[in-house]
Queue: 2 jobs
Job 1
Amino acid sequence: MPHALTNHTETGEVLRRLGPFASAHVACTASSPAAGQVLMWSREAETWQAEEWPLRDTVEADAAGRGFKVMTRCTGE
């Protein structure tokens, strides 16, 4: 079950951890209100990532999301 992590980009410090969630989609969706804005997600290896300097949100990918290259607002479209 994926978690949503918010890290400081330069230090790597974990600032927020949300979850566990039933899917990567739900984890990404939960991250936007926590960030106070809509996040644009992209796929990086085994994770979805959204960066709003100096913070980076990361969600572990699940099998259902592996075919997507870009996920806008975490919809999988």
Note: Confidence is low (pLDDT under 50) at residues 65-77.
Job 2
Amino acid sequence: MPDGLTKSDLKNALDDYQLALKPCTKEALAVSLGELTDWISTFSNVTAEQRKKAIRYYAEVLRELPSDLAYEAVLRVRKNYRFPSLPKPGDLAAAVRDDLLQRRKERNAIETGSLTGQERPPAIRKERSEADKARVAEIMAQFKSGRMGEFAE
């Protein structure tokens, strides 16, 4: 165990990593898909049916990622995507692959006791701003109204 760390510190760090690796929440999935839907709606060469099908596949990928990485994947794909067609669902997972692997590696180091002292649990945002809460509510309302298809459940 690195100097200065207690068993309690390790347990707290492990709890933080477990939380940081938990699959995407329904709320976070809605926000990430809302961002994707808004973006791909600007693609003039993609039909509404193609968008709906793409969102279904994107949801499959994003719901497996931790909430913050699901959103980060959307941001990275939007920022770096250069083609006129829709990004592939795998592009979302690839955008945060290294981040996810690093979290797993560090969590495993805590669990196995092979700490190097370099591990730093990812920051977990516990409180949302009022603007964030309003945006989440808006996107959830769109899902519930059926605007975003079958993800309203």
Note: The longest helix spans residues 97-112.
